[in-house]
């Protein structure tokens, strides 16, 4: 599966890299709760001498506010280690328009501050004849702000979205994100934004890499259509974690443009050895699992006498937290290669397919 650097021997996966580019929502935290294993795993990453940058599509907070929030959750972070889509959008606006130009901001005070800091004049009304509309996520955004944006764009203003994430992960499940609010304006105007700054566009990753002068970056994210596709567009290896919005079924069905280099249950996958799939014409083996091509299916079976009792749980609290990930890695490698449907070949495989949500 991997198309990135490989750590030597039994070294942790992150030892092959000099920078980790981390998404936040669904990777480090969910709403106001830190993701299990995130604090200790990131501490170990830093102890190994690997730099960290937090790269988020969310334009709601300033970089300093994001860093402060992370510290309150127990995650070591500094403001210059945070890259937000608000920063990216403001930088783009400053490149395109003369200082002092009016820009209609639909979004948070953080986005307003970034626009002002770029030498432009934020406004909230189309009557100011803004040269551009920049739209980012803010929970207080309502009809009036969207209406002003629609009027300004119809009057000729360029339209820049910080990101098109349809949902935000939360402890209550996925909630409407900036992409859903952008879609409302797009429906009214019958056209998409002129530009999108955030992932999957590579600009935020490129900014973070320049800051760190890194040569071997690794992208870590939970969303295939933003984090992983963005990494692929930027030519960077990626690790997909299962703590956010992406399910095992979505991973197995992923088209080439959104396939990650590595899989992990959570951020502990950074500081544990990576088990590379071993493939041949007959199938794929990873850890205690193998997938064989037979009778038009990809059949999963256990190869060890007791591969985690067939439970294959996906949390760091299990005796071997990699068991479920080993099975999923084998299935992804096999299905991405063959395109065949999946079937359990024994009781252990049936149990783990059920836990992965791959039955039926």
From TrEMBL:
SUPFAM superfamilies: HAD-like (SSF56784). It comes from the Bacteria. One of its GO terms (molecular function) is phosphatase activity. One of its GO terms (cellular component) is cytoplasm. Residues 1-93 form the STAS domain. This is Acid sugar phosphatase. It comes from Actinocatenispora comari.
């Amino acid at each position: 599966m991997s198309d990135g650097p490989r750590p030597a021997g039994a070294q942790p996966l992150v030892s092959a890299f000099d920078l980790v580019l981390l998404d936040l929502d669904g990777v480090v935290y969910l709403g106001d709760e830190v993701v299990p294993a995130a604090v200790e795993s990131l501490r170990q990453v830093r102890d190994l001498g690997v730099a960290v940058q937090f790269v988020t599509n969310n334009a709601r907070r300033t970089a300093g506010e994001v860093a402060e929030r992370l510290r309150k959750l127990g995650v070591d972070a500094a403001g210059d280690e945070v890259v937000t889509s608000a920063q990216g959008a403001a930088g783009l606006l400053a490149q395109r328009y003369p200082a002092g130009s009016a820009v209609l901001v639909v979004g948070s005070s953080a986005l307003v501050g970034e626009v002002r800091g770029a030498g432009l004049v934020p406004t909230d009304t189309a009557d100011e004849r803004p040269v551009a509309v920049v739209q980012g996520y803010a929970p207080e955004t309502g009809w009036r702000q969207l209406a002003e944006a629609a009027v300004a764009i119809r009057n000729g203003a360029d339209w820049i979205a910080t990101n098109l994430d349809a949902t935000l992960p939360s402890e209550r499940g996925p909630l409407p994100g900036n992409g859903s609010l952008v879609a409302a304006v797009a429906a009214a105007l019958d056209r998409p934004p002129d530009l999108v700054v955030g992932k999957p566009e590579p600009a935020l990753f490129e900014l973070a890499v320049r800051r760190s002068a890194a040569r071997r970056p690794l992208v870590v994210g939970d969303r295939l259509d933003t984090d992983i596709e963005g990494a692929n567009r930027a030519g960077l290896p990626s690790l997909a974690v299962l703590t956010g919005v992406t399910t095992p079924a979505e991973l197995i069905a992923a088209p080439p443009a959104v396939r990650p280099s590595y899989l992990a249950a959570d951020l502990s996958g950074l500081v544990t050895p990576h088990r590379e799939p071993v493939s041949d014409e007959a199938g794929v083996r990873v850890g205690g699992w193998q997938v064989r091509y037979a009778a038009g299916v990809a059949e999963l079976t256990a190869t060890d006498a007791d591969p985690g009792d067939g439970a294959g749980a996906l949390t760091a609290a299990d005796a071997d937290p990699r068991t479920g990930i080993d099975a999923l890695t084998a299935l992804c490698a096999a299905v991405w290669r063959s395109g065949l449907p999946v079937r359990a070949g024994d009781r252990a495989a049936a149990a783990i397919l059920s836990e992965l949500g791959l039955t039926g």
